[in-house]
Amino acid sequence: MPGSVFGEFLTVATFGESHGTAVGVVVDGVPAGLELSVDDVQRELDRRRPGQSGVTSARRESDRAELLSGVFEGKTTGTPVAIVIRNEEHRSSDYERFRDAFRPGHADWTYHAKYGVRDWRGGGRSSGRETAARVAAGAVARKILAVGGITVRGYAREIAGVQAQRVDLEEVERNPVRSPDPDAAPVMERAIAEAKEAGDSVGGVVEVVADGVPAGLGDPVFDKLEALLAHALMSVGAVRGFEVGDGFATARMRGSAFNDELAAEGGRVRSRTNHAGGVLGGISTGERLVVRCAVRPPASIARSQRTVNERGDAVEIAVGGRHDPCIVPRAVPVLEAMVALVLADRLLAQKAIAAPPGRPAG
Amino acid sequence: MPGSVFGEFLTVATFGESHGTAVGVVVDGVPAGLELSVDDVQRELDRRRPGQSGVTSARRESDRAELLSGVFEGKTTGTPVAIVIRNEEHRSSDYERFRDAFRPGHADWTYHAKYGVRDWRGGGRSSGRETAARVAAGAVARKILAVGGITVRGYAREIAGVQAQRVDLEEVERNPVRSPDPDAAPVMERAIAEAKEAGDSVGGVVEVVADGVPAGLGDPVFDKLEALLAHALMSVGAVRGFEVGDGFATARMRGSAFNDELAAEGGRVRSRTNHAGGVLGGISTGERLVVRCAVRPPASIARSQRTVNERGDAVEIAVGGRHDPCIVPRAVPVLEAMVALVLADRLLAQKAIAAPPGRPAG
Amino acid sequence: MPGSVFGEFLTVATFGESHGTAVGVVVDGVPAGLELSVDDVQRELDRRRPGQSGVTSARRESDRAELLSGVFEGKTTGTPVAIVIRNEEHRSSDYERFRDAFRPGHADWTYHAKYGVRDWRGGGRSSGRETAARVAAGAVARKILAVGGITVRGYAREIAGVQAQRVDLEEVERNPVRSPDPDAAPVMERAIAEAKEAGDSVGGVVEVVADGVPAGLGDPVFDKLEALLAHALMSVGAVRGFEVGDGFATARMRGSAFNDELAAEGGRVRSRTNHAGGVLGGISTGERLVVRCAVRPPASIARSQRTVNERGDAVEIAVGGRHDPCIVPRAVPVLEAMVALVLADRLLAQKAIAAPPGRPAG
Amino acid sequence: MPGSVFGEFLTVATFGESHGTAVGVVVDGVPAGLELSVDDVQRELDRRRPGQSGVTSARRESDRAELLSGVFEGKTTGTPVAIVIRNEEHRSSDYERFRDAFRPGHADWTYHAKYGVRDWRGGGRSSGRETAARVAAGAVARKILAVGGITVRGYAREIAGVQAQRVDLEEVERNPVRSPDPDAAPVMERAIAEAKEAGDSVGGVVEVVADGVPAGLGDPVFDKLEALLAHALMSVGAVRGFEVGDGFATARMRGSAFNDELAAEGGRVRSRTNHAGGVLGGISTGERLVVRCAVRPPASIARSQRTVNERGDAVEIAVGGRHDPCIVPRAVPVLEAMVALVLADRLLAQKAIAAPPGRPAG
Question: Distance between CA atoms of A108 and A101, rounded to whole angstroms?
Fold first, then answer.
């Protein structure tokens, strides 16, 4: 499959450039009979949209979703669900000056190297705007997960080096940086503001957790659950690192510390600890799924930087404009959406091979 | 595709359990006309095989590859290359006592939850033994990369907290821990030995670099090069984290520090620094590709651990036996193989869409 | 992949129901740098659209294509091309009476059996309307083929038992039944009119030929060119049979009659005859590609038929309305589109594995 | 996926050349808990093997299957099932004289055009020998179908123009031509013998039926059941045409004759007739599935034919040797296997999206 198609059982095909006519997605493989409305999609898009607070881009985009197919009388029909989000604010002129210069830290040079031509208006396809389509698709995936009682939630674990000291999921949507620790939130906000004033940008770490994931999801050896999650999350432009459970810390742990001991609890096998983050051998354990992503500082900064243009001339550019000084808060719903897509995909995969109750497999 | 099939253009289908008849792989999509012999495969398998030194498992497996198809008169024919490695040493009896207990940190419980039945002999499919098939496939991928002048090399960046202070690729194969720093090597070895004596195990970090990668590989938005690499590397059982370039460190960097400035050099666009690790916007930049994996400590340890059996009874087990106290050195060729498979796959993908010289695309 | 996604290298994801908001397609894998305009798409859609003549449905749908992405400054950028065609005429009320009855020969019962729910308005997704998206995608595929000098053309080989006695490709678009034989055309037209008057419908045979196909396309053993073409063409609702070259007639031929003898001609290997229809061993021979499809009579007929409704009651229904009494003429551009999609897909596939001039493969 | 990989949920990757070391297959996606032994596979292989009677090739190949993985204590474990069949009789020297000549009707020229190199020993990968791997895979698929009560059976509907006048499934394995009509069998045999004496070969038509197929299998719009079956069956080397139900005859039928009227019968929706052959709108109806394939006369004939060699010289060759004068009887188990693989694949696909009893979908 080409690069804008994702998922095996629940497949999304996204399209659209930042300054083109629209972005959107076709979601295929959605089981029939699920309640789905445009509001379900809009709710998630609203969490990703710019202009939500002082820490995000000042761009105003209403990002209205339109549902073109796959739903009849309020329910999915088993046919593809197409969602289109028209681009409203076309200020391509902002980008005229970068028309032939490769902005440092952006994909300008690599797109040029790959395709020979590129849509220079706001990064075109390489813009973060494509993630709106992911969020729309994620809203559909959440409906599939909801049937199984699975929820997916993310938050800013760290911004500009400021760490959340505790995780209270109720707090996340109450502060503009999506910190699960209300005390850390204002410190994070300040760090972002300082970077912005300095004409710079900052990164952070997003943690996503999923509750209610049954044991048994994920398909060894190549489609281990953590491998599919890593693929999904690392495909988001700003993400430079991924870990599951104790992740990189396990490199310095001993086996006796890492191994989660097992116990029977209410007829279920449970682990006392969760160093594995809910996945072992590529298959979900039934414990909380925990993954983390390193989110890099945005490439667009007001400071002057040296680069070259298409003719190879050395030039200096300052990108400035209405860019996010930190993408972490807006990345949260995007990364949640990707986790939801993977889990819904594997839930369907598992149904395919599982034995129906009271019958042998097959 | 089910879970034991990987790759789009260069596809591998692996099979085999640790104590079954054989492990192996079918590699399809191999271009015709490449020189390939069983020795090319054997050379790589020998690097992965146990019993190489005091820091690895004492098991003796000769791991002889047999080439069943796809090569005629020393060259690939464009048809599938099948490679089989017979299992030699079947000491299933070693595992009788774990027959119905779920070993902590292993995939025993998750396989049971997923499939209902499981091959309890040495972990079956969840054993690290399946990686022999990956290494065999990687040897084929390397032949494709060699035509394009691409090399892939890995090493132990860190073991048990001991870091390599410098990277000298020539040193890697000269010490048993595959350290690129000859001074760090004996310290790493000692740390492994200490853990083993304590009935325990240790982890580390493997870094893999690829040189000669042309700009333009990787397919946004979902098949970004780093996403495919993350998928490939996180699918190796012991890996719990992945990062590209500066990875998790970027979460604490400012944009001005992360962005690699560009310059023209000998008619090519080059970056002065390589914080991106050779990938930007999901497409290779033409600079050295740099990825890192967190490798967890092996689950099999001599120390006693609490767990449950299939009936839910609490039991204590000590796994002991001839297990690797640290898998990092043997993981190096496996992770190299996975990187080689992804790069070869994307090299073919890029040929599909690239315009031939002097002609428009298509 | 779910059922509305097709193609490996050039992938189309279609969506839309006959009486929903829109039908459309996302085409991914399109090489960059091809000239593509909405007119290229519209031209093909106009050939499929109803209301073209007395032999087709009287419905009026302008079928205006809108290009949402993937084209910049008149050229493809390598990113997905999304095309939407809004549904204009919603006469869902026409279908109220079939709301719970399963129309004979239609997919009403099977959709009900599969999905539990169904969009009963005009067949929903099972309507021939979905083929508009295929034609739009085919227009994109033709641009890829054009670079390689490949053309794809179809025509009515037979309608209601009336056969074209000769094939003049210039004649096809000059008569409403798309007969390549101008003398057969009025006879075919009359046969359709007679069936319509009798409240009935008729079928026929469409032949599609492709010229300029280079030797070497198609991928044994499962993706033989004829297998992919069969998949593509049999996926069009009205098609019940497929053959390549001499097809079913070969069942009664002797080997000596079927085998095309080879000769060198102008430095190329050519066959004197073309019983193979341009494909041997699953790979194109370089001769004209010739395939044929059996197109069944449309299911919607004015005559009364017995059936059951969702409650299992026996009912009688007459579908009538503005339906095509013969779908063959409008099927021609649809089947051409499917052939174009397969050929473009395999052209890209072949580029992936082919050796560049003067270099070994890989 | 490259060309030797087939299926989405139940995926087979086959390998092997006619005169190489072995042919074989890896079957992935097999549900756990199915009883499977090497005998299940051997039984089907024995039906395909040469040397069964006077109408088939005189070659003696015992075609012993070896099961390498995926089965433990007599049951499938959910991991890949690998099966290898070693090639025994290597008479490559028989083919020395065709080393650089392109045999008419064979894939010699097209493989040369595609790959640049080719294994000239007995056709290499293009030999019918690769179908042994399909039959082995089909034996696994049958185990999945058996759980659902689905059976797949084929027979020679016609050989050399001699048609079976009736279908008695019990008769098929009782005569060497696999005729379902015992009276037609000796006539067919004679026709084959006559062609052989004349140094020639004959074709025929194979019909495959599946009973017990539940309504609901097949995935519109591109993975319609008949489209997947067409893909599968047209991928068998000797097949040149495919039809479902009344197939090509529908081109001359009126809608009123083609439409199967529906009735409620014992709480199920049934059709009185089965012109549709068990598939409507791409989804199984619950009636008997009926497909037919045109099988061409084998290309290898004793008669002299004109062709060219790799240097472009005109040459005359007579292939002769121990070839099948008619491949129809041996094609029956191969085509059955392909139908079984498609049905098992779609059975799993349908489980993925179907609602569990008493719960909404998802």
Answer: 8
Beta strands in chain C (DSSP E): 5-6, 11-16, 22-28, 65-67, 71-72, 75-76, 81-86, 151-159, 162-163, 204-211, 239-244, 262-265, 268-271, 279-280, 283-284, 289-295, 305-308, 314-317
- Whether C15 and A82 lie within 8 Å, measured CB to CB: yes
Provide the shortest C-alpha distance from residue B350 to chain C (in Å): 7
**Residue D345 identity (one-letter amino acid):** D
Residue A137 vs residues A88, A124, B224, B328: alpha-carbon distances, Å: 20, 20, 19, 38
Helix (H) or strand (E) holding D72: strand D71-72
Cross-strand pairs, A295: A204, A239
| Angle in degrees, CA C323, C327, C330, rounded to 5 | 110
Q: Do A34 and D351 touch (CB under 8 A)?
A: no
Expressed in angstroms, the distance from the first to the final Cα of chain D is: 28
Min Cα separation B80/chain C (Å): 10
Are B105 and B299 contacting, i.e. CB atoms less than 8 angstroms apart? yes
pTM for the structure as a whole: 0.97
> Are the beta carbons of A362 and D34 separated by less than 8 Å?
yes
The residue whose two tokens read 């028309």 is A99
**Which H/E stretch holds residue B23?**
strand B22-28
User: Could you tell me how far CA A224 lies from the centroid of its own chain?
Assistant: 19
Asked if D148's CB is within 8 angstroms of A362's CB, the reply is yes
Inform me whether the C-beta atom of residue B303 falls under 8 Å from chain D C-beta atoms: no
Peptide bond into D334 cis (omega under 30): no
| Host H or E run for residue A13 | strand A11-16
Per DSSP, the three-state class of A223 is strand
Of C223, C246, C260, the CB nearest to D3: C223
| Helix (H), strand (E) counts: chain D | 7, 18
Question: Among residues 208-267 of chain B, which lie with CB inside 8 Å of chain C?
Answer: 220
Is the CB of residue C37 less than 8 Å away from at least one CB of chain A? no
C contacts of B224 (beta carbons < 8 Å): none
By Cβ distance, the residue of B33, B82, B119 closest to D72 is B119
Residue D200, sorted as left (phi over 0), alpha (psi -120 to 50) or beta, turns out to be: beta
C-alpha dist (Å) from residue C285 to B43, B225, C148, D317 = 40, 36, 16, 20
Rg of chain A over Cα atoms, rounded to whole angstroms, equals: 21
Is the alpha carbon torsion for C79, C125, A27, A10 positive or negative? negative
Per-residue confidence of chain C (362 residues) as pLDDT tens digits? 999 999 999 999 999 999 999 999 999 999 999 999 999 999 999 999 887 777 777 666 789 999 999 999 999 999 999 999 999 866 667 777 778 899 999 999 999 999 998 888 888 999 999 999 999 999 999 999 999 999 999 999 999 999 999 999 999 999 999 999 999 999 999 999 999 999 999 999 999 999 999 999 999 999 999 999 999 999 999 999 999 999 999 999 999 999 999 999 988 999 989 999 999 999 999 999 999 999 999 999 999 999 999 999 999 998 867 789 999 999 999 999 999 999 999 999 999 998 754 444 44
Nearest CA in chain B to C346: B352
Distance CA C240, CA D227 (A): 9
DSSP-derived secondary structure letter, C198? T
Residue A359: phi, psi to the nearest 5? -130, 155
Q: Is the peptide bond before D221 cis (omega within 30 degrees of 0)?
A: yes
In CATH terms, is domain A5-354 a member of 3.60.150.10? yes
Q: Could C78 and B349 be called an inter-chain contact, meaning their C-beta atoms sit closer than 8 Å?
A: no
Contact A78 C14 (CB under 8 A): no
